[in-house]
Each structure stands twice: as structure tokens, then as C-alpha cells.
Amino acid sequence: MKRLIPGWVKWPQLDVPLLLGLMLLMGFGLVVLYSASGEQMEVVYRQGTRIVVGLAAMLVLSQVPPHILRIWTPWLYILGIALLLVTWFAGEGRGADRWLNLGVFRFQPSEIMKLAVPMMMAWYLHPRRLPPEASSILISVAILVVPAVLIARQPDLGTALLVAVSGCFALFLSGLQWRVILGFAAAAAAAAPALWLVMHEYQRNRVRTFLDPESDPLGSGWNIIQSKIAVGSGGVLGKGWLNGTQSRLEFIPERHTDFILAVLSEELGLLGVLFLFAMYLFIAGRGLYVAGMARSTYARLLAGSLSLTFFVYVLVNAGMVSGLLPVVGVPLPLISYGGTSIVTLLAGFGILMSIYGHRNFIR
Amino acid sequence: MRLARFTHSTAGQPLKEEAQEGRQFRKRALVAFLIIFAAIFLIALRYVYLQVISYQEFTTRSINNQVRIVPVAPNRGLIYDRRGRPVAENRPAYRLELVPEKVDDIEQVIISLGQLVELPEDVLEKFEENRKRYREFDSVPLKFNLTEEEVARFAVDRHRFTGVEIVPYLSRYYPFGELLTHVLGYVGRLDVDDLNRVDQGNYRGTTHIGKSGIERYYENELHGISGNEKIETNAQGRVLTALDRENPVHGDDLILALDVQVQQAAWDALGDRPGAVVAIDPNDGSVLALVSKPAFDPNLFVHGISRKDYNAILAAPGRPLFNRTLLGGYEPGSTLKPFVGLAGLELGVVTEEDRVFSSGGYYLPGVSRPYRDWKKGGHGWVDILGALEQSVNTYFYQLAYDIGIDRMHDYLAQFGFGMQTGLDLLGENSGVLPSRGWKRAFYNEPWYPGETVIAGIGQGFNVVTPVQLANALATLANGGTRYMPRLLYATKHAGNRQADKSSSPLVSQVPVINENNWNVIREGMRRVVHGASGTARSIRPESGFEIAGKSGTAQVAAQAADEDMDETTAAHLRHHALFIAYAPVTQPSIVVAVVVEHGGGGSREAAPVARAVIDAWLSQELAQ
User: Fold this and answer.
1) What integer best gives the mean pLDDT of chain B?
2) Which residue of the set B212, B292, B334, B391 is catalytic?
3) Structurally, what CATH architecture does the domain formed by B260-302+322-623 represent?
């Protein structure tokens, strides 16, 4: 049998536990999506197609050694920034210019930045002495702030924050001194009122609604209230798959995209939610473990911040669906329908796989 | 490899401590993992809070979300007269309804609809006003009682109108039209003011409500209890399935004491003259007829009267909207004499034998102006019987003077003068039964003896309503039992086969000091019709039964008593003709009070009406 395959083909070294975790999560996600889409098989197929594309990207990236990635990194970052600037002038989308139409397909340049920013941070910190010195910190901050501001301007606050957070994780993992971290945290708290001033009115409304959803139950509070009703009425065991009334009767907004967790909570109950959280925790934990095994600073920082950012998606989405956090357009990773996010995420896991596969190289 | 690393770090940067960095990283990675673990733990706690602790609350809200309760209006109770003739019916009709949420451009759709269905301005105004009561996905009535042609026209074009529907319903219909308007009243479109006087929850699906008359007084009984249909809807309010239905309890059917045939007889007998007739059964206070003329067609009001029709009613002569039987205040005139006479006998002021000389004019000591008899030269010596038979004013001037106004007031009050009878219709006028105290309170003036004198013949301050007069006579005829007159005879609850008889509440019993005194008054009234010189001899029945009566004339324009009325007097200045009667004399089963406005003499104008009513009643009673 082995002879049939030429000897020069190297079997991709995939991290089997991580891969199994991802496959299980996405399979579970498709089952939930079938219900959340109102039993439209077509939606499931399309999501499946995206997953296949994402897995392909993952496979390809898993074969690229980290030191090659590192060489590409600045170019990717510059490309991302350039595309964001193009989007500024030629973007399209409902109420926000996030999308770039390439004729064949449309995509959000901000998705590139979700990978490019942690890569760039890792690239920059890789040759530096760690923990980083003041000048390094300043430049690192600039690396994450520039794209974050460009994305926030679109406006897409959720993605901007996630991009910024991924950069912050890289800094954190690089061993940033605690006093510096505290200093940044204090500065951020002080800057919050300023943030309020630069926010768009609809973003402010989201925050207001978040603080008191019942003040406008039929208006902007509707989403939060209906989502909470769906979650709460699910109970421990849930109403059963395909039996969620809140979702079936369309009370849940964006039920198969950003609020798909509400559908899951309603139909599969607390047990389903905890199972989901456990899977996410496993994947993120496995990612951090892989990062710990890596031999280069670049690989470690990149793998670590990708894993943590992935989990931040989960935290923000789960917080939003349960009314703990304001409504920001953050999907439930690998489960919410649509967007380029699923491909980006899987590409990120491709990088993790590569780092895992090349853990024995010192580079 | 190592070399490569060193070359890479030649940019003047210090060497990296690989192993130490790795340890540093793993420490940080562990810290990060603990932080995210703590974070997801907190969020999981949030889910526990929502799904375990608040489970009940959110389950309820989730059910409330999906299940919508749609009210089902009960059928309004029917109304019958005492012989079982339907007087208020429900007829199938069609109305046009519109769901605002489903209609993109309401104004445009209404313009298009206007080409198929007549939509006058007032209908549209009512629609706009009504919309506020409903939610966006509720169906709002636009026009009631579509003609068959309108229904057909809409049916052809209905595909053009999403969100507009033709809905069958039961519409109120009054087969006797204006004959019973002042009894039944009418139902009309429910408006905001009506909602304040009913249980709004029970009226969610109701479109019409009793606006006046019996329809209003017995609104609660007639309306019934609203039912519900539980339906599952989605977030847009679209109906998916009906889950459960709680049937409405239809309103009670009412059986009125009123006899349409008697009512019709009174109506016809009044002819074109404005006036009022009230007939009561003295045995139980039930109202046999209640006519106020002119009237109007109540059916016009059911579907919302058009401005044109309403203006026509307002402009019509004789104020058709005015219910004379309970709102009309008239001077009782001589119809008060039997009661004054009874007061005199019972209070011991006079006896049956006492006689008074009528010279044509009665003089109070120290007053030069005479109080006149209606007959020039007077009636000579008369006792109480003769005074009643010929309606001798002088006798009652003297009697009233002897009784005194306050004692007279107190005695007559026992018959219900000066107060509402409590008839089961709203808005009754209480009339006036004067006394010293009343005049002081009302005019802040002292009482003058002359006012007592004219009060003896029912003039001056006295004001009665026809229903008051009839009820007072019923009390006299039945030996002193005063009932609250009732139009309602019996109530048939939905689902019951038998109707429950409702009895007229007893108000009071007039004390009978001497039964003979009452008989004397009754005999005097009998002689008004049957006596040789009775004022109402003309209505005497040839055979079969006897009638007791008393005529009266209510002054309209202030006028010297010695000026006679005649045919030349302008119609609107002529006196109102009054007549009260009961029959049969031996065992009274009907009491009638008649007012013919500007009719002139009571005996000539009003007595024949009373006779017609009595005939209509007794012919039916005898037939049974």
C-alpha cells in the first residue's frame, strides 16, 4: 500500500486531538444550524461548503513551516492595511462599508487582519528581548491600533476590538510586565468616556439597550429580551432539537447567525451549553498547549494569541446572547452561519497545526 | 542553525534567553488559560441563572410570546315583548376589516376601496379613531353593514387588497323601528367614552354597545361574556394554528313587560301630535306601553348614523330625540285632583259629605283677584264625588288651602311625585312637588297662600313626568302599593330553556287609614267617565267594563284664568292635554297616563288616546 504513494509526499502532521475537537464542534454546529435555519438543508450545505473550504485552507497552511510564515508576515500585514484603505473608499455593505467586491466573491478585509495582526505582533516581538522594552511596547501598540482604528471606522466595533485583543494577547504572552498591564488597563478605563464620544449613535444605542433592555422592549431591547427568553425557557434539558418555539416562531433575531447560541440553549438546554463550552475550552486549551511546545518566539506568540482570540469570540458571543454584554456583531466561532469568519478561523487553526507539526524545528 | 539565530540578532540587540523565554511564555499561557477558564465559568453561571433559576419566568414569557389570545365576541341577547314578539334582533351582515400591519399604504388602499364600497368621511374618521384601540396586527373594522352589491364588488377584486377582509357578523335590527325607539334605545359603535363604563377586557372583540334605552340600561345582561381563541402566532403576529377555544357566553334574552300591540294602539291614537303615553299594570308595576312621539328610526344609529340623517333628526319638528315619557316635565293640572282629594279625606280635613259652593270664582281672604272655575258661573254645591266628576276647581282650592302646602306635599310624596320612579331607563326627570322648604331652597322665597290654592288643582310649581303620573295612579288604583315601574319582565339566560321572571321592586306602601276614602276617590274618577256630567263621558265604553279617569290641562303660556282657549289660539301656545285612567274599575289591570302636547282640553284630546290603549290591552287580556 505504501508504495502507491510516492515517497516525497509528506503526510501532513496534523494535531489529531485538535482536529477531532474541531470536527466534533463543527458537526455539532451543523446539527444546530439545521434547526436554527428553519430546517433548511440548503443552508446546511452552504455552511458545509464553507467548512470544506476552510479545512482546505487549514491543510495548506499546516504544511507551511512557521519560519516561512514569518517571512510572509509583514507583507500580509501591509496587504491587509492596504485593503482596509481601499475599503474605506470602495467598500459596500448595509450601513457599513466592510465588504470588498472582487468580482468573483466579496470578502471583508478585516478578516485578514484577524490573522495578520497577531502574526505581525509575533513577527515584531520575535527578535526582541522579552519581556519587551518600552520602545517595543510602543511599536507593538501601533501595530495593533492602526488596523483596529481602520476597522472601527467602517464601523465594525466588534471586529476592531477582537483584532486589538488578539494583539494584546501577543503582548501579554510575551511577558509584558504586570505593572505595564495594569497601567494600560487604567488608561483604557480612563479612555472609555472618550470612546463614547467617538461612537456612532447606533452603537451608543446598543450600549444603552444593553444597560436597560426593558426600557424599549419592542424596539432595540427586543433582541436581548427575546434571546434571554429563549435561553431561559430552555431550562436544563432544553425543549428538544427542532422544538424551540422562540426560534421556530422567529422571535430570536439573527437566529442562525449571531444568535445561534440562543437556539442551541433553547433546544438543548443548559447541558447543551455546557457541552459546547467544554469543547471550546478544550480547543483553546489544546491551542495553548501547542503554543507551549513551540520552539520559536514567533510560533509561540502566534499560536498563543490565536487560541486565546478564538476563545474570546466564544466569551463575547455567549455574553451577548445571555444579555451579559452589549450586542456586538460577533459570531459564535465555527457554528454561526456565514461570513468569511469560518474560513479565517480554520486558516488560523492551520497555522496552529503547522506550529504543532514543526515543533521539533528550531526556527 | 544556531549560527542563523545569531546572525539574525546582529542588529545590536541583546541575545535572547531561549529557555528562559519559553518558561516565561508557559507561565503566561497558564495564567491566560486560567483567566479564560474563569471567564467561561462566570458566563456558564449566567446560563445557570437564566436556565435554572429564572426558568419558570422565561418559560411563561416564552408561552406568552407564542400564544395570542383573540377575543370572540358573544352574540347580543335578543329582546322580546311580553307576547314573545321579537323587538330587537340580530341579523347577519358583513363588515369590511383591515389589518394595518399587512397593508403597505393604508391611504392608497382606502382610496382604491372607496371605488368599490361607499366610504364617507365620517366612516373614515371613525376608523382612524378606532385604530388606536387595536394593535398593528389586529383587524380593525372599517365599514359596517355592507350592501350585497358592495360585498359582491369587493369579492371580485379582493386579490388586489391584501390585509383587507370581509367579515360576517350579526347586526342589531329593530323591526318596529321608531315605535319602540324610546323604549329600546339603540346600539352603536363602541367608542372611547363607552369603554370607560364597561369591563374593557370583556369588550375586546365587541364592536357595538347599548347607547340608550333598554339596550343601555341592560347592557351587562345583553352583552354576555366574551370568549377567547388561543392561537399560535409567530413574531410577526401571523396566525399559525388555533390551539384552544373558550366559547363566549351569549347575552341574556330579555322579555319586556311591554306589549307591542298596546304600544302600537297608543302610537296610532296620538296621531301626528307630539305627546307621551305610559301604561302600567298596577298589579305589579310592569310597563305595558311607553310611547313618546315623535321618534326616529333607531336602525339608523346601529351602523353609525350619517351626518345627513342626524341633522335631519335634529331639524325635525317636535324634538324626536327627546323622550317625553321620562324627561318631559308637565304641569299635572287637574290630574292631580284625585290625589289631593284623597289627601283631604285621609288626613281628615274633609269628609265624603262635606260640600263646597262653586260660584265660578274663589277668593282668598284679603285677595281681590279670584281663582276661577273652568265653568262660567260655577258648578253650585258639590261634594268630593261631584268635584271630581266635573273637575270643580273651587272645591280643590278650598281643600288645598285647608290641608296646607306642607301636609299636601308630604301626602302626595307617598305616591312618588317629585322624585324619580326608578323605571329601568336612564335619565329620568324627577319633577317637582312643591313645599315651603322646596321653595326656600330653590328660590329662597317665602311661600304664599295663593300658591297653595293653585297647587290644589295641579298648577303653579307642580311638575310631573308621564311615567310619574302613571305610577302614582297605579298606586292609587291598587290600594297604595307603589312599585318601581319595570320594562323588564323576564330574563332568559343563555342556555336556559326557561326565562326567569323579574319582579318590580316594591318602593313603599301608602298607609290606608280608611279604605272607604280610597273607594270614594275611585268612584269619583269612575264618574268622570261614567257619570251623567263626567268630563270624559265621550270615552265611556258601551258595555263590558268600566273606566276610571281624570282629565287635566297643563298651561303652556302664562295666561289669565278667565281667558278661554279656543281654536284660534296658536298651536304652540295651546295647553297640553292630559288624561289619566285605569280599567277595569273593579279589578284594575291597566293604568294609563296620556299627554298630548298643545292638545288643548284633556278630555277631548287625551281621553280617547287612553281609551284606545285600554281597549288594546283589555281585548288581549280577555282573549287569553
Assistant:
1) 86
2) B334
3) 3-Layer(aba) Sandwich (3.40)
